[in-house]
Every structure is written in C-alpha cells, then in structure tokens.
Amino acid sequence: MLLIHCPYCEEDRSELEFRWAGEAHIARPENISAITDEEFAEYFFLRNNEKGLTYERWRHIHGCGRFFNAARDTVSDRFLMTYKAGLARQPVPTAEEAAAIIEDKTVETWEAVEGDAR
Amino acid sequence: MSASPDKTGAFRIKGVGRHTPARTARFTFDGKSYTALEGDTVASALLAHGVHLLGRSFKYHRPRGILTAGPEEPNALLDVSRDSARRQPNVRATVQEVFDGAKIASQNRWPSLSFDVGAFNDVLSPFFAAGFYYKTFMWPREAWAKLYEPIIRRAAGLGEAPKEEDPDHYANRFAHCDVLIAGAGIAGLTAALSAASTGQTVFLVDEQPEVGGALHFDTSTMIDGQNGYDWAQDAAARLKAMPNVTVLNRTTVFGYYNHGFLGLAERVTDHVVRPAKDLPRERLWQVRAKKVVLATGAIERHMVFANNDRPGIMLASAARSFLNHHGVSVGHNVGVYTAHDSAYEAAFDLHRAGVTIAAIVDCRADPGEAVVAQARALGVDVLTGHSVTDTSGRLRISSMTVVRNGGGNARKIKVDALIVSAGWTPSVHLFSQSRGKLRFDEANQRFLPDIYAQNCISVGACNGTDDIADLVDEAIAAGGGSAVVSAENRFEWTGGMIGAAEGAGPDTVVKAFVDFQHDVTAKDIRLAVREGMHSIEHIKRFTTNGMASDQGKLSNMHGLAIAAEMLGRPIPQVGLTTFRAPYTPVTYGTLIAHSRAELFDPTRKTPMHALEAAAGAEFEDVGNWKRAWYFPKRGEDMHVAVNRECRTVRDIGGVFDASTLGKIEVVGPDAAQFLNLLYTNAWDTLKPGKCRYGIMTREDGFIYDDGVVGRLAEDRFHVTTTTGGAPRVLHHMEDYLQTEFPHLKVWLTSTTEQWAVIAVQGPKAREIIQPFVEGVDLSNEAFPHMSVAECTVTGVPARLFRVSFTGELGFEVNVPADFGAAVWKAIWERAEGLGACLYGTESMHVLRAEKGYLIVGQDTDGTVTPDDAGYGWAVSKKKTDFVGIRGLKRPDLVREGRKQLVGLLTRDPGDVLEEGAQIVADPNQPKPMTMLGHVTSSYWSENCDRSIAIALVAGGRAKAGETLYVPMSDRTIAVEVTDMVFFDKEGGRIHG
Amino acid sequence: MRKYSVFAIAREAMRAHKGWDAQWISPEPRSSYDVIIIGAGGHGLGAAYYLAKEHGITNIAVIEKGWLGGGNTGRNTTIIRSNYLYEESMDIYEHSLKLWEGLSQDLNYNVMYSPRGVMMLSHNTHDMQSFKRHINANRLYGIDNEWLTPEQARAFCPPLDIAKTARYPINGAALQRRGGTARHDAVAWGYARAASDRGVHIIQNCEVTGIRRGPNGEVQGVETSKGFIGARKIGVSAAGHSSVVMEMAGVRVPLHSNPLQALVSEPLKPIFPCVVMSNTVHAYISQSDKGELVIGAGTDQYNSYSQTGGLQIITHTLDAICELFPIFRRVKMMRQWGGITDNTPDRSPIQGVTPVPGLFVNCGWGTGGFKATPGSANLFAHLIAKGEPHRLAAGLNLDRFRTGRLIDEAAAAAVAH
Question: Which of B183, B283, B375, B838 could form an S-S bond across to B171 if both were Cys, CB 3.0 to 4.6 Å?
C-alpha cells in the first residue's frame, strides 16, 4: 500500500485515503467543440502510460478532497514528489536529490524542493 | 543411553531441554494417544515417542518424516483439530505447539499412513517424470476433463479442506513505528537494544514462541558471559519493559510491501488449551515502518542424494533443536552426512547426550580443522571425502550406504536417524519482497542483499555475516543507537554445497529429492533442461520445484545449481525465481479479520428504514443501500402487492422513501455557469424556485447521470443524482471544478445523508401534505409542477419539491435526516387515512415505465447518448461549451441506425417480456442472429391492464408501428414498436 | 517433432527419459525474417504457429525480452469463457473457445483445457437484468449460457453459501458449461514447440530497443539487444508493455498498464468443482489440478509496471471469497503475485493495422487475454498474413477511438473478465 504525501494537508497518508486520477497535465482544449475527431481522441483516450517516470494526478478523496499532481516511477512505484494542482509540470529532483529522498524516506513536495533550490 | 520410562516419550533425555517436566499435555495422532510436554511442537512430541513417519508425499506417496524444526518444513504437514469445525489442514508439525486435547491426523494417505495404496505411484514413477502429463491424456478429446483430470485431482492436493464454517474470530491492528525488526535472534535482539536506546518506537517481531532464533539449537555461543539462549530471554525481558518497544512472539512478518508497509500474522490461541472466548485466533498487523531491520537468519539445506527422503533423515540443526530445546533425541544411533561444519556441532551435542554417532560422513576432503579435531577427540568416526549414496528402510531409515568420493567399495552403516547439512541459505525473502536486488556470493555459493529499494537493512546470517563479532557490530549500527553485547562462539563454521551430491549426478537415475513436498528429484530438473527449459522460471514451472507450500525454502538453491550445471552456465546467469509474499502461508481468516457479514461492506439505511421494516417491507440491495422493494400485505406475493401499490398510487396516492437519491448542494456566484458546463441543459434560464430535469454526460457524450435540479436562489442549487451515482458525480464535478474551471466561484457539498426525502404521489398528494406545510402556497398556480420552495413541514424546516417520477401530481418533501422518521410517520398516518399506500422501488419502476421515464443504468448502459434515449431536447443547442459537447459529434454518435429507446407492446397483452431479452427482425434466421437491441425494462402494468416494455432498438424510433420479434428458448414473442409513454399520453395528470 | 503419447512416455520410461528432444530450439537470430513478432506469450507464439500452419509463412522470429510465456500467459488465473455481450466480443472469444476445445490435439500438447463450467453470481436486480441480457444475446449467437436459481447454483458448486441473510445474498447465476480453465504454461510451451517445429525462431532474452522505419515510414526491422533484425512485417503482442513498444514506432495506443493481483492457497483435496465469479463482491475462484484454490483479486488503481501490489487488494478479495464460501476461512494463502494488464478505455482489445505500414498491433486484452489466446493468435496471424483483419476481428481496430464506435463490455455489463 502506497504512502502518499498530500501537498495540501502536508501529511504522508495511506493510499486508502486517495484516489488515482489519471495522467497529469492534460488540459481540456479551450475550443473543445472545434477540435477534430483525431484531436478529441488524443485528448480523451491517449495517455503516455510511461514505464518509468510518470506525472499523474491523485485526489485526497478521504482527506481534504483536493486533486494534486505527483511524479512517480511506475517501475518502483516510488514517489519523487507531489505538488499542487495548477502548477506547471515540475522538473524531477536530480539523482542526488532523489537519493536524498530515498535516504530520509520523506516524500518532498514541489514547494519544499523549490525552497531548497532557492 | 538407556530407554527412559518417561511417559512423555522414550527418546526424551533427562536433564536436557528447556521444558518443565511436570507440565504435560495429551494429544492423539492418527487415533493413538500420546503424552507431550508443554512447549513441545507436534514434531518434537512425536519424535520423543520415536514416531518419525508423519506423512506421504504429493506425487509418489513416499513415506515422509520430519525434515526441519521450523516453518520451512516441507514434509510434516498434518491435520490438527480442536473440534470438528476447528480443523486445520496442512499444519506444519514443526511449528504447531502441542496443546492438551489436540486431535492430529496424517494426510494424503489411504487407507492408513503405514499402508498407503497411493504408494503404488512410486513403483510407476518411471512414467511420472516431470511434466509427463503434458505429453499424454489427450485422447479421446473429452477424456481429459471427464476421466483423467478427476483422477489426477484426487491424487493431488494435500489436506482436506474444512467442511464447516469457521467459528473462530480474527483481529486486525494497524501500527506505525520508527523501526521494525524482523527476527529476534542474536542480530535482531542486538539491533532492537540499539534502536530502543535512541527512544525510537521499535517493533521486534519473531515467528517462534520464544526469542532466540538459532540460539534454540546453538548451545555453544556465549553472550555477555551467559549461555546464548538465556541471554536472549533476558534481552527480550529488558526490551519488553521499555515503553517504546513492542515485542511480538509467534508473529511472522509475511509480507514486505511498498513504502515501508508490512503484513504480520500473529498466532494468538492455536497453542492454548482453552482459549478465552474474546481472544482472536490470529491477529493481522499492518505496520508502516520508517525503517526495517531484517534479521531473518538463514535456513539449513539438506543434502541431495539417492533416497534422501526417508523418515529419520533430517537437518542437523533440526536434530539439534529437538535435543537442546525440547530434550528429545532423534534416534539412538545417528549418522551424519554433511558438507558444512555446523553438523559436527549437532553430533557433539547428541554425543554428549549419550546418543551413539554412527559416523560423520563429510563429502569435503578438508572440513574445518577444529570440528574434526573435536570429533576425533570425542572418538567419533569422521569419514572425510566420503558420501552417502543411498539409504534403506521402508518406513524409517535403517542404514546408509557410504562410499569414498571418486569410487571405492560401498559400505552400509546401520543408523536409525541420519542428520544432514549442505550448509545455510540466507533468508532473503523479505529483502526480495521489498524489491531489493541480490548479488551472488561466489565464494560461499549464496545470494546476498546488494541494492536496497526501501529504507531497510539486513543484518546477521541473512546478510551473510558469519563472524559473530561482525554480526553484533552490524546489528548495533543498524539499530542506530548503542548497545554493549559481547558474543563468542566455539567454532567457526566453513563449508557448504549446492546441487546434487556424489552419486546423484547427471549420469545417474537415482531418486535424489530436491523438493520433498512435490517429489522433485535432481533428474527431473535435468530432464527439464534437456527438454529446452533454460530459464529457471521454466524449470520451476515444468518440474514444480519450489512451488509447494514451503515455496522452495530448502529446494530452490539446489534446483538452481543442478540446472546451472546442466546448462553449463554460472549460477547468477541462470537466475533466481521471484520471492513472493507471504513468507509462510497466512490464514484467510486472518487477512479478513473483521470484514465479515455486516462488516464485510457497510449497509446504508435511510432514516425511515425501521418504520418501513415495521410496515412489512421487503428490501433490495441497491449499491450499499437497503431500499424498500415492496410492502406486501398478509397473503400477498410480490406481484399482487406491486399491482395493488401501482393502482393505489394512481387512484389515490402513495408514499415513497426517496432518501437514497444522491444530493449535492452547488453554491456560489458561478453556480449556474458551472452547471451549464457540467450538464447538457442550460441552467442560467432557470428561475429561483423552479426545477429542471438535467442530463449529465462525460466528455464522450454518453449519458453519465441524470436528476432533477432545483434552484433555490441565484447562487444555490439543490442537485439530485441517481442512487448509485452520487459519489462518482461529486468526484466528477470536483475534478472539473478544481482542475479545469478553477476560476469559477463554486462550492460543492454532498448532502445525500443530510436530507430524508419523502415522495408523496397521486391525485391526493396535495391533500395528504397540505395540513403539514407552512410557508408555501401549494396551489397549482402558485406552486406548479417543477417548483421548489423552502418551507416547514410538520414544523420542521424543509425543502419541498413539486416533482413527479410517476406522472401523477407529486411532491418530494426533504427534511433534515434526523426528522425523517417523525415526518414520515405524520405524513403516512394521514395518507393511510385517505386510502393511500406505501410503495417501494418495484412499483416506482413500474409507474415511471408507464410514463416512459428512463432509469440511468437500467435503460442506459454507458453507450447511450441523450438523443438515443429520446432526450435530445435536453441538450442545449445554444451553449458553446459543456462537458460532452465534442464527444457527441463524433462520427459514430451521429450516424443513422443507432440504438434508440422505444416502447414495445407484446402482441399478447398478457406476455411480459424478460428484461435482457434480445430483439430481432427475422426470428427464423440462422445463428448467429443479427440482434437489433434488447429489452431494458419490462413489467406487468396493472394500470394499463397489459404488459409494457422499454427497449433499445437499432433505428428504433423510425420503426414505430413495425412488428419485431423476441426469440426465447421455448417460443418467439411478437412485439410492436411504440413510443415510450403507455399511460396518460396527454400528460395531464401531473398538473393535478 | 517427436510425437507425444502414452506410448512415447512408456518407451522413455524404460531409458530414464533421456531420449526427449528440446521442446523448442533457442537459435541465434538471422539477419532478417519475413515476419517478426514482438512478445513470446501465448498470443505471440500462437500467431507464429498459425502463420506457419495456415498461411505458409515460416520465416518468422518471435522476440522475447525475458523467457517465453513469462508475462501474463504465466501469471493469470486461467479462466476461459466466451459469454460476452457484444457481437465483436462474442466473435473473438467464441472463435477462441472453439479452438480451445481441440487445442491439445492440434498442438499434440496437453494444455488441460477443462470445461468445468464458469458460473457468474448475480446478487441483485441489476445483475439479473445484465446477466439475462448476456444469456439471451449468447443464445441467439449460438453460445451456451444459462440462468440458474440459487439452489441450482449451489448444486453446481456445493461450497457456495446461498443464505438470504448474507450481506449480498445471491438471487441466481449465469453458467457457461463450456467455460473452464486450462494450464497456462502448457499453452505457451505447446505453441512454442509446435511453432519451433515448423521452423519459427523463438529468440528469448532479447529486448527490442527500437523499431527501424524506412523512407516511406514503413517498418524495416527492429533494433534489439542482439543487434538489428530486419523484417517487413512486425506484429506487436507485448501485453502490458505494448505502450512502450508501440512508442518506438511513434504510435500511441490508448492503454493503461495496471497490476492485477492474484493468489493461490495451499494445496487441498478436491473441494471446488468449477469456476465462480462475482462482480458485485469482486472475486473469482477455481481450484487447480494441484489442489490450490486460485483466486483472482482486483487491480491496483494506479498505472504501474511493478508486478506487485498492495495487501489491501488481496484482503478485500478474500473478504468477498469468504462471504461466498465461509468454509474457506481456515484455508491459507500460499502465494500472491501481480501481472501487468494493458487496459483500453472500453475494456475491449485492440487488434489491427496501425498508421505505420507493416506494423500490426494486438494489445489491450486487460484481464481477458488468456481466454482469448488461441482465437486472438489465430486472427492476428490472419491480420499479419493478409494485411487486413479477419471478419471476426474487424471491430477491434484502433480507429474506434476516433469514431466513438466502442465495444464497451465494461459499461454494458460491469462484469469483470
């Protein structure tokens, strides 16, 4: 069972509290009624399904109820970070940062990583 | 050694062992009664009485004894019962503690353990080579399932499944800790002392009844000046006294999952004579640990040689455990066959206890000097560079055949037990489960932890740390604190081998068992390689090596080495099969714990449930809800009751519990705009105080949900959803609100459980509720169909809807849930006096079908567009955006000939179609027939005095008036396609 | 190929089984083939076999990054049935079931197809409506599927609890008697042996790292860990890894890879005669010939390639199993594992041409891939040989996600595979 850091509650909580909500950073087309069938299929059905680093959405459905984004390795299921909805796709931590994350077992939020960078 | 008169067994040795001689327990094995000492395992208790034959093997039904003294036991699996319902098959005799009154039986034999007809398979074994069943039983075609397979199935399997429902109960606990330590041997205890010194919360978990691990058998290790085992008990006592430490005995860490999550199974009462009723039989612990220390030790391997499976042959460490811990000798005249120094110490202990050591046969030319010197000093015959190449004895070993390696005369040495050791396999199971990567330690022929995937650390024997001082240092470091432990042992151990021993090599045809439970021999593994199975996974699956209930704890390394030799490849290149949870089998009941019966899944009941039950309601399951289905009066069956209810609603009135409808409060200045985006309809034109029926699609354009939405104020909507749909609709709305339309000022709140909803329908609906309602004029003019108002009902603040799902004059009274029962009571008393009825979901379904109202999820199925359902009018043509606007325009959603909802009338009005029946144009066509669609709803309508049905039919609306056919298995029913309104086509009744 | 039979076994028994040949050969790859199939599971090996047997194409390599049959072929709960709802589904699953019925004889390899009956439990009105829709559609198609009362259901499967007091009582069941199980490894090995015998090269431990395209975008071959291997036709049949492989040719497919969990009990004497599935309580169960209760559990909610999953999925399934069969509470779980399922948005497979000339895809079988093995392989062979789909697989094309002509078994029935 995964342990997930909610960037709103700022807590590590069990997967039981969360619902996975698909690939992240897929915006609904602004002019959706004007797009082609191909573009619609792309938007609605096609997903990257990466083996490795994936950006995805979760909802803390049995907690604060917020949707947020996460970067996770789909091979190890390790979270590299979680960050709030609305933020652009965040760069993943460097190898050293990732190693530090593994070392102290805390899942960094974007805000925390950003703070360190400053 | 002289025969002891001890009633706890002739092989009990006075003054040896850790049990209290006065505390005995009686049990039966295959009907015969035995006395044991408290603390005995079933294995030690039987061995004390000289009983070695405990079971029969899986395939050849060969007599089998006890191989180990721990949870890795592959052979000695027994059926243990307290009473007929508390019967447990496949219990490891080496784990189960004896309790007074236990009834124990052997398995997989008929008619008896000593004479088993199935043993004929052993004679036929040349035919039953690995994978033989893939090559035969193919003719005739039907015979596999009818003839061969049933025979194979009866022969396979081990224990008999329980036949009665389990009366025991189980418990579940969640826990968090800083450090969880798996294994309480020297390494685990030391790590725990170190971790505990830092003040961290520590879980120390061990599968045995007492801590100590290898110290159960190892009597030569001294720690802090004490005998090792005594030190371990002291250390555990110290740890238990600390507030930050939890010590769990009889508890197996069976699974190491993601992100520091571990599954533990604690055996609570299986060893207790009369368990207290409130105690669970077992307890599941689900622990999230910040750090895990694996101190899981190592497992001794057997030697692979001809006929190495006879009862009386066991691991040297097992014999040592039986002796030093249980005070039981495994024989009077014991042989030793080893490739590792550790077996010598077993021989020394036995020798010291007065047991004759027939000989130590060591396949190595140069064993450890110290042990050999000690053996010689004790006068024990040591044959280095020799091997045991065969054994004899039908139900128990009687002799071993010893040959000098490389040839020479064989000589038979009489023994009544043979203890063996091929060395030690580090227990890396949990490490591997945590997805750590192993490396092969070439020098010692073993796999060891290499790359960690989680915050864990292996210490001690499971990490390949052989030197005791190193082990202690490693454990202290892993604990992260400090501890002072000084340990020393008498001998340094060397040696070990994997693979087949002398006399069982590739050029031989002997039965040298690798996997005892599944009867896999060295030659089976070689056959697999010969047949092209070059991956270790293929070899495992082809031979079933390592797939028995011990999951290859003893056999995997031997199997791998034999395969590697055949393939001519180094072991790491052949690879290792995957370690999977659980470490040892876990009872389903334990994993389930409290999730049974009413706790299996929550039951949702409306505030009026008890009143409905008192009124005689039958209930049906709708999702988690229990909904009143119909209200039979005395002597009524469902059909009669529903007919009465339907007629009464239309003639007079009816009261219905609609509380399960999903309800979402949509509030905020942009609420109307938000609903515009989420529903196909337009909402900005809806005036406060009015309601509208709304259809929701997803982006794909298919109907997702529907319901009436009332506008209470400019910025406040009361949205209703289908009964099952509420959670997913709210989730769907939140998703759009938070991520696509975050600029909208809208708040969403689930109010399903806040409101009790009482629907009052029928010509007298107004008359029924009128006296209770204050604050709203109920007249048609002031409060027409599709109105909503806030008011009071029986003095309770309420939201009153003038809506109808029956086509009659109707109201839905929403009151706070806590008042639901009281308001229901008041309304129903008056309604009953006026001749109205209570009605349930079945009548609700019939009444709405009479009016052609659809039920999402019954008449639609996720492939139906609003237009398909005949609700094209509910899709706004003016809006420039809503969820589904683009999906609806896709080629297949706008093509001609889509399935559309229509009405069906059977030619014979008495015929009620089957819901789910398929519709065709030509009933005489050959199969596979072209199906036009199916019946989604079908009822007997008492009000129409005939059957009615709704169906999805390809190009349905254009087929109005046509005759189609519903072919059933016994006859074909002709139907006419109609519109969907069967009753009150003009629709006047709804306006009262 | 040396024919397998009881006589062959008897002969070999006399000489310690030293005369058996390798079931398949493990050759070094040639520089090019007529057809390359990526993925040596049941579908890929089967497609190679049928290409050789029915279409006369034998210059084929089946390339596998691990060991043959090591993906979902060897990790599933081996259930076989064909009682699906939509014509497109019935077409392929019934075609498959018919092939299952003669597969052991066709391959001369006992795949242990055992039609012991697959029974789906109905717990409520919605289930009943849905199951009867299936039963009627199946009957008019020519597929057996029948409705049972709760009493009939228990007679068919005695351990079943049909008490009305259960949390979710049973109100009936749908039974397909021809449904059942087969031995999963034997399917891969049987196809491998038969294909190898017809000259097909099975290249194991060879990972495809790229798909080389020509000037007109057509496929030219694959880059692998053993070097470049040429081919003008490539069939991708890589189950949970299909997204990864298709991406190499620049083709995106609408797939989610999710771990599907399963578990087996310790071996028991025969106690469970058939296959039982319940969608309402999320469980399916059968007993293997070795005596283990084989239980299919749920899918983890997130995309993953990890082949492991959470304990909560297993425990939830066991909750359900023991609600249906209370006598199993003292039985023990021996082993749990996960497989990576590739799921499409409509939970129906994709088999068809792709925008890349010469590249064919067979994926998205979700939890239904094992039962489809012979049928899917057979029709995939046709697709590769002819360049266009067989009539029975025509609806499984990729284009349906553009047009919206989905085959939505999940939406229509909410019945797990």
Answer: B283
